[in-house]
Write a structure and sequence with these properties.
The complex is a heterodimer of chains A (296) and B (330).
Chain A: H1 24-62, H2 68-75, H3 77-110, H4 116-123, H5 125-128, H6 131-142, H7 150-155, H8 164-174, H9 177-190, H10 193-200, H11 205-234, H12 237-243, H13 253-262, H14 266-290
Helix pairs in contact in A: 1-14, 2-14, 3-8, 3-9, 3-11, 6-8, 6-12, 8-12, 9-11, 10-11, 11-14, 13-14
Chain B: E1 2-12, E2 15-26, E3 30-34, H1 41-49, E4 56-61, E5 64-65, E6 76-79, H2 91-101, H3 106-119, H4 135-148, E7 153-157, H5 165-182, E8 185-190, H6 193-199, E9 202-207, E10 210-215, H7 217-222, H8 227-232, E11 237-239, E12 242-244, E13 249-252, E14 260-270, E15 273-280, E16 284-290, H9 291-297, E17 304-309, E18 315-317
Parallel strand pairs in B: 3-8, 3-9, 6-7, 7-8
Antiparallel strand pairs in B: 1-2, 1-4, 4-5, 9-10, 11-12, 12-18, 13-17, 14-15, 14-17, 15-16
Helix pairs in contact in B: 2-3, 2-4, 3-4
Classes of the chains: A mainly alpha (296), B alpha+beta (330).
């Protein structure tokens, strides 16, 4: 077997383009380099103006008086509560959206059913609709006085609106597509061959999912989860409508930022905003460092 | 004891993939399902594997009715055209997969996997990921993986289709030798008649969802059941109303005498073989002769010749209903 004897998979080194006599090739190469640098410059300027600079300013303001602003924040039990609430709500949303996201992705990619395209389009809706609309629609359905479900649930002793369940629902709604949009293309790419091979080797549906499908989509799921977490931590509009914004009860970190900003506590607002941004950025950086290079 | 496929029909929407197909595949043999793409041979293989269910008919594997048995309970080894390697698992874990699912003890798994890796010459690659293997190596890994569970039957779907010509030929020989060692009932799908003729004990020719002929390579080549099989199993040409192989035509460099008169209109030399087009009154006939014969005939373009079908040659009457794409390269 000739190809067994090869210890390393043979990859022919790319032959470098031979320098052409005459200047036309060199001129072309120089021009393409100029184009490359121009594009790079545009991208860098764009990102700096839109993202980098504003965020730097927030960080600068947050540390305007050293660590005192941030220390003051943590000294306030109600703000601590707001952060804990935000993180807990975000984690619950991530859990819900991960389970449903993987299930819906598999449904969309592996099964044919009437209305599939409609469902697929529907899933993008939360990204398209303004969060404030989401908030208002939840109010219509779940409010305790005139909502569809609200009064019934409330008389059963389950308060949805202006309480944690509404905040979780709103947050979950706005971050719904993120896991799905990461997982669907990967599922499409891996195809069904591996699952069928596992099936012919005796694996049942659960074993196929756990041993083949899940490891194949692992990084897409993790990336989707991180995006969901980052999005959930920062949700403002929908939460503002449904939470009731009660200090120390239903006020989340983003609402704290707004409240402080409106009350002229600018340094407090910047410090809170900085912490929120920091958690999200840390999540994304951690994942891109962990993610193996060959997984894209 | 064998695989018995009875009256299987399968439709995909309006497309009839298999139409009332019955075939018995003998135990311990190496059987090829041969036919053009889209003819239904892969569908038949996938129905035997349980990866597809028939609309009608039944599948009995070694005496067990498997028609409604899910794939994971059929104990069938399946090898895919594009390897279907478990990308996230090492070569070792790929081969061990079926045994791990069956919860075999660790030392038994280790022994069996190493044995199989040796069989497919991949023992030094146990810790590699499939991405680090060549196509041929991946397919051998897939074969070891399928054999690991000691399947009742081994099914291969165009196993060498994605490989380049040289590796394909090597693996083909190797599959034949492997089968002589392992003796597991093996069925493989191919559209390459040379592959089928060279490797298989028995060939089932399938076209447009029906079986055209079942037989040994010799039977198929020497006694084709009809126009289609004759055309599909090798180059053919037409002389009058008969299909005949170009090398079964006898060529004489005379204007007179017995045989159909004609004139040499084209000469192509391919290695040891020389292919000539002879234009007769109503058709162009392809003839192939060896280089030595060609030189002794001393022919040139425009030379008058006489054509005759050699004695004992296989001929089939042309069936005007068979309309096939140009499969022959002569």
């Amino acid at each position: 077997m000739a190809d067994t004897l090869v210890a390393e998979p043979v990859v022919a080194p790319p032959t470098p383009p031979r320098p052409q006599p005459g200047g036309s090739a060199r001129r072309l190469r120089r021009r393409s380099r100029a184009v490359r640098y121009t594009f790079r410059a545009i991208v860098v300027v764009y990102l700096v103006m839109l993202v980098g600079w504003p965020l730097t300013l927030v960080a600068q303001r947050a540390f305007g008086k050293g660590l005192t602003d941030i220390q003051e924040l943590f000294a306030d039990p109600q703000i601590r509560h707001a952060f804990i609430l935000t993180v807990v709500v975000a984690l619950i949303s991530v859990a819900i959206n991960t389970v449903f996201g993987i299930s819906i992705s598999i449904l969309l990619v592996r099964y044919e059913f009437p209305g599939k395209r409609v469902l697929s389009a529907f899933i993008d809706l939360p990204l398209a609709v303004s969060p404030i609309v989401v908030g208002l629609s939840l109010v219509l359905v779940y409010n305790g006085r005139s909502g569809w479900f609200g009064p019934a649930l409330e008389s059963a002793g389950f308060k949805v609106m202006y309480a944690a369940p509404a905040i979780i629902m709103a947050t979950t709604f706005v971050s719904l597509p993120l896991v799905i949009r990461e997982v669907v293309p990967v599922l499409q790419e891996i195809g069904t061959d591996q699952e069928q091979a596992a099936r012919s080797l005796g694996a049942n549906a659960f074993q196929r999912f756990r041993r083949i499908t899940l490891p194949s989509i692992k990084w897409a799921v993790i990336y989707g989860m991180v995006l969901t977490l980052a999005r959930s931590l920062g949700e403002f509009g929908a939460v503002k409508v449904v939470s009731g914004n009660v200090l120390g009860v239903t006020r989340t970190a983003t609402l704290v930022v707004e409240e402080k900003y409106l009350n002229f506590d600018k340094s407090g607002a910047y410090a809170t905003a900085f912490l929120l941004a920091l958690i999200s950025v840390a999540c994304i950086i951690t994942v891109s460092l962990l993610r193996p290079k060959d997984q894209g | 004891m064998s695989i018995e496929v009875s009256q299987i029909s399968k439709r995909f929407g309006d497309f009839v993939a298999l139409d009332d197909v019955s075939v018995t595949i003998p135990s311990g043999g190496l059987t090829a399902l041969l036919g053009p793409s889209g003819g239904g041979k892969s569908t038949l293989l996938r129905i035997i594997a349980g990866l597809e269910y028939p609309d009608e008919g039944s599948v009995v594997i070694e005496g067990v009715d498997a028609t409604d048995l899910p794939a994971q309970n059929r104990n069938v080894g399946f090898v895919f055209q594009h390897y279907a390697a478990f990308k996230h698992l090492s070569v070792y874990r790929n081969v061990a997969f079926g045994l791990e699912i069956r919860k075999r003890p660790k030392d038994e798994i280790h022994r069996r996997v190493m044995e199989l890796l040796e069989l497919v010459h991949l023992e030094q690659f146990a810790d590699r990921k499939p991405a680090q293997l060549s196509g041929g190596q991946r397919q051998r890994m897939a074969l070891a993986r399928a054999l690991a569970v000691e399947p009742t039957v081994l099914l291969l779907d165009e196993p060498f289709g994605a490989l380049d010509a040289k590796v394909r030929k090597e693996l083909r020989d190797w599959l034949r030798r492997l089968h002589d060692e392992v003796h597991v009932t093996t069925v493989f799908v191919t559209h390459d008649q040379e592959e089928a003729l060279e490797v298989a004990d028995e060939i089932v020719v399938i076209n447009e969802g029906r079986i055209e002929q079942i037989g040994t390579p010799d039977q198929l080549y020497d006694e084709p059941a009809g126009d289609f099989v004759m055309r599909f199993l090798g180059p053919v040409t037409q002389l009058g109303g008969q299909l005949v192989r170009p090398h079964d035509l006898h060529l004489r460099a005379h204007a007179d005498g017995v045989g159909v008169p004609g004139e040499v209109s084209r000469i192509i030399r391919v290695g040891f073989e020389v292919r000539l087009d002879v234009t007769t009154a109503d058709q162009v006939v392809g003839v192939s002769v060896t280089r030595a014969q060609f030189l002794s005939l001393g022919l040139d373009v425009g030379a008058p010749v006489r054509l005759e079908v050699a004695p004992n040659a296989t001929t089939v009457a042309v069936d005007p209903t068979v309309d096939l794409p140009e499969l022959v390269d002569a």
